[in-house]
Every structure is written in structure tokens, then in C-alpha cells.
Amino acid sequence: MTDEQSAGTPSVADGVHARLDDHEERLAAVERRQDRTEDKLDNITRELVVIRTEGKTREVSTNSGFDRIGAQVSALEKGVAALTGAQAERNRLAEESLRRLRKWAIIIGIFSSLGAAIGGTLLSDQEVASTIWVKWLHWREPWDVPIQPTPQPQETQFILPPREMEAT
Q1: Residue 131: inside a domain, yes or no?
Q2: Are the C-beta atoms of residues 130 and 120 closer than 8 Å to each other?
Q3: Which domain holds residue 19?
Q4: Rounded CA gap, 113 and 125, in Å?
Q5: Neighbours of 78 (CB within 10 A)
Q6: CA pair distance 154, 115, nearest whole angstrom
């Protein structure tokens, strides 16, 4: 039977056509949903690619930042080591100078003590002291200052008063 023959009467072919049309509509709806899903998946994939690219860029910039910071820390470490070494060298030189100064101070102290002991011993002897003051320095001896008694008025020309002038 052809479509013209069955045009007037409902037949099985009309049911099959109706079912086919219904299936075509459903299949078209499924294909549309699948296309929308594929579009969404494509968008998601593009976004993932963008996110991964941004992540890689961020990772590269972070690594380069860490490399710069590492280089700066290394340079700072070298500077601190050089400064510490220079400070240690200055401290060593200052200590050496102080050691030398102490040595000279001890030597001068020993010679001063010996000189004072010898001088004290020699100058305590009157003859040696007189020799130093009079013969070498051509000065008067400091202890040889004559004490002049103050003259007392006397009634007589004699030093001792006559007996009759004594008070009884």
C-alpha cells in the first residue's frame, strides 16, 4: 500500500510514521542537548587551558622571583661574611696593638720600679746624696738650710748674763 491508498484510512504505516517522527524529534532534542554539552565541555576545556597557562606563568614568575631572592640572599651572605671577616681582622689588629702596648707598659714599669728602688737606696745615703746635689747638680743640699736663731736683745755684751743679773 502506498500513501495514497492509505490516505483515507488509518493504517499501521501512519502509526509507524508517527512513531518515527516522534523518535526524530526526540533524537533531534538529544542531539541538541549533546551539542550544548559539547559546547560546555569545549568552554570548560578552554578555561582549563587558560587556567593551566596562567598557573604555568605564575609558576615561572614565582620561580624567577625565588631565584632573584636566592641571589640576593647569597650576595647578602657574602657581604656579611666579608664584613665579619673584616671586623675579625680589625679586632685581631687591635688586640695585637694592645698586646704590644701592654708589653711596653710592663717594661717601662719594671725599669721605673728598679730606678725608684736604686734611687731611693742611693739617695738615702747622705754622702751619695751630697755628691749628686753638690758635685753634679751644683746646687745646695735641700737639707742643708741653716736655721738662723733670732737674735735676742741683751742688756750686756756677754752671751751669758752676769751672775748678779740672775734672778734669785
Answers
A1: no
A2: no
A3: 12-103
A4: 19
A5: 10
A6: 53
In a domain, 144, yes or no: no
Cell numbers at residue 33, please? Answer: 542537548
User: Over the stretch 42-74, which tens digit does the pLDDT of each residue have?
Assistant: 999 999 999 999 999 999 999 998 999 999 998
Query: Structurally, how many domains does the chain consist of?
Result: 1
The 10 Å Cβ neighbour count of residue 165 is: 10
- Contact yes or no for 141/134 (Cβ under 8 A): yes
Query: How many of the other CB atoms lie within 10 Å of CB of 131?
Result: 13
In the structure grid, which three cell numbers stand for residue 114, read together?
728598679
Grid cell digits, residue 61 = 614568575
The three cell numbers locating residue 155? 742688756
Which residue carries 747622705 as its cell? Answer: 126
| Residues 154, 160: Cα–Cα separation, whole Å | 9
Average pLDDT for residues 94-110, to the nearest whole number?
95
The residue type found at 133 is W
Our measurement of the distance from residue 32's CA atom to the centroid of its chain's CA atoms, rounded to an integer in Å, reads 72
- Cβ 29 vs Cβ 39: under 8 Å: no
Rounded Cα–Cα distance for residues 19 and 26 (Å):
10
Buried/exposed 90-117: b ≥16 CB within 10 Å, e otherwise: eeeeeeeeeeeeeeeeeeeeeeeeeeee
